[in-house]
Write a structure and sequence with these properties.
The protein is mainly α. It starts with 14 loop residues before the first helix and ends with a helix. The longest helix has 37 residues. The strands form three sheets. The protein has a two-stranded antiparallel ribbon with strand order 1-2. Helix content is 61%, strand content 5%. The chain folds into three domains: 90 residues, Fumarase/aspartase (N-terminal domain) (Fumarase C, Chain B, domain 1); 244 residues, Fumarase/aspartase (Central domain) (Fumarase C, Chain A, domain 2, Up-down Bundle), CATH 1.20.200.10; 88 residues, Orthogonal Bundle (Ribonucleotide Reductase Protein R1, domain 1), CATH 1.10.40.30. It has 19 helices and six strands. Strand 1 and strand 2 form a beta hairpin. Helix 6 packs antiparallel against helix 19 and helix 14 runs antiparallel to helix 15. The structure holds arginine. Arginine binds next to helix 6. GO terms for molecular function: argininosuccinate lyase activity. Pathway: Amino-acid biosynthesis; L-arginine biosynthesis; L-arginine from L-ornithine and carbamoyl phosphate: step 3/3. This is Argininosuccinate lyase. Keywords: Amino-acid biosynthesis, Arginine biosynthesis, Cytoplasm, Lyase. One of its GO terms (biological process) is L-arginine biosynthetic process via ornithine.
């Protein structure tokens, strides 16, 4: 098979060697971006007079045909042509004749591949930002429906204090808000054109880099041609932002999995987002949440993989950089899939309000109320903590909860306790009275939801 760069070679590599070096198996995902880059480049070559307009017209027609075929998945890629860039160039030449060979004037695969990656990530990151917003809206909706749903709040996975269930899930809203801000911020470094950097030193042709960047919709051009072809920071940043997003999704997934157990039974996932067992007929498994938790590992791997690829590469382009792609594609597909699945899972889940209600009535998560009550009556908080702890112990011995004690029982530990204590010990009171800014008090949660709606 003839190579487009075959001139200085006396013999060709064997097929299995080509196979090892080829990236076409995965970089064909850049087909549309690669054609777009070529269209911009050749248009600029025509406008600057580097190529005659007649040639440009022919090349543009050829590229348009290739694009049409690409969209219909009709292009037949060859391993012998190594990568997407050489495959397309070969197809163009086969289609329109030797004039197709003029496309590569003043360009190298090094600036070409970098351009493709910038274009690809720009589109996919904005898709991810949109998916994040949709997911945030779904969380907001579940939160609005569950402001009054009281649930146990945990620290150390031990019952801590009663909270509004809305307050709990809004935590994930804010995590996603930070993720979104990070992806948006990273756009500044994705939205830059390397095109025209050539192999690494620029070109002798009087090209107009700003023009090709404008045609591709880039906001800026790289100021240094060597930086343009060797920079992969924008991909590392994407992987990093994705890794942190997946951390958040994985934590949420873990809670979904726990809450779906018979032991918790706080929520029930919709059948459409659950799976059964091949042997145990009663099973309804939260596979999707588990997979998202599991896939998080892969995304961390992709980040560490690319950092490691880059750490020893001298300037400028090295073939090592071809290894930037699979991890990036995998991360894009995984993050997009995980966000869509998670959104559906949260939108369709049923919150078991009565079970949550029952849970907060059968625990000691109102113990802080009693300590605070005594402190309000003038007892030093440390002492109030001790007294309450003793009353909790009394309950444990009796096999009951604080609200089951009589006033008499309570007064044995402190004479400051009066009948009004029982109202305060009710879980609803415990939640509604936590009205400090950002607290779980119903009024605060409503304000928080308002704030979230303004930000979204
Ligand atoms: N397939 C290559 C990659 O993904 C394209 C750039 C190749 N450039 C080169 N000089 N070999 O990195």
């Amino acid at each position: 098979m003839t190579k487009l760069w075959g001139g200085r070679f006396q013999k060709s590599a064997e097929a299995w060697v080509d196979e090892f070096g080829a990236s076409i198996g995965f970089d064909q995902q850049l087909v549309i971006e690669d054609i777009a880059g070529s269209i911009a480049h050749v248009t600029m070559l025509g406008e600057t007079g580097i190529l005659p307009q007649a040639d440009v017209t022919q090349i543009l027609q050829g590229l348009a045909q290739l694009k049409e075929k690409a969209l219909k998945h009709e292009l037949k890629f060859q391993v012998a042509q190594e990568d997407i860039h050489l495959n397309l160039e070969k197809m163009l030449i086969d289609l329109i004749g030797p004039v197709g060979g003029k496309l590569h004037t003043g360009r190298s695969r090094n600036d070409q591949v970098a351009t493709d990656m910038h274009l690809y990530l720009k589109a996919r990151v904005s898709e991810i930002i949109t998916l994040l917003t949709t997911f945030q809206q779904t969380i907001l909706q579940q939160a609005e429906e569950n402001i009054d749903t009281i649930a146990p709040g945990y620290t150390h996975l031990q019952r801590a204090q009663p909270i509004s269930f809305a307050h709990h899930i809004m935590t994930y809203f804010w995590m996603l808000a930070r993720d979104k801000a990070r992806f948006m911020e990273s756009m500044k470094r994705i939205d830059i054109s390397p095109l025209g950097a050539g192999a690494m030193a620029g070109t002798t042709f009087p090209i107009d880099r700003q023009r090709s960047a404008d045609l591709l919709g880039f906001s800026e051009v790289y100021a240094n041609s060597m930086d343009a072809v060797s920079d992969r920071d924008f991909i590392v940043e994407f992987l990093n932002n994705s890794a942190l997003l997946m951390t958040h999704l994985s934590r949420f997934a873990e809670e979904i999995i726990m809450w779906s157990t018979d032991e918790f039974a706080f929520i029930e996932l919709d059948d459409a987002f659950s799976t059964g067992s091949s042997i145990m007929p009663q099973k309804k498994n939260p596979d999707m949440a588990e997979l998202i938790r599991g896939k998080t590992g892969r995304i961390y791997g992709n980040l560490i993989g690319l950092l490691t690829v880059l750490k020893g590469t001298p300037l400028t382009y090295n073939k090592d950089m071809q290894e930037d792609k699979e991890g990036m594609f995998d991360t894009v597909h995984t993050v997009v899939g995980a966000l869509k699945i998670f959104e559906g899972m949260v939108r369709t889940m049923t919150v078991n309000k009565s079970r949550l209600q029952e849970a907060v009535h059968s625990d000691f998560s109102n113990a802080t109320e009693l300590a605070d009550y005594l402190a309000t009556k003038g007892m030093p908080f440390r002492e109030a903590h001790e007294v309450t702890g003793k009353l909790v112990f009394t309950c444990i011995q009796k096999g009951c909860y604080l609200l089951d004690l009589t006033l008499d029982d309570m007064q044995k530990e402190s004479a400051l306790i009066e009948a009004d204590v029982f109202d305060l010990l009710a879980p609803t009171a415990a939640v509604s009275r936590r009205n400090s800014y950002g607290g779980t008090g119903f009024e605060q949660v409503k304000e928080q939801i308002q704030l979230a709606k303004q930000q979204i």
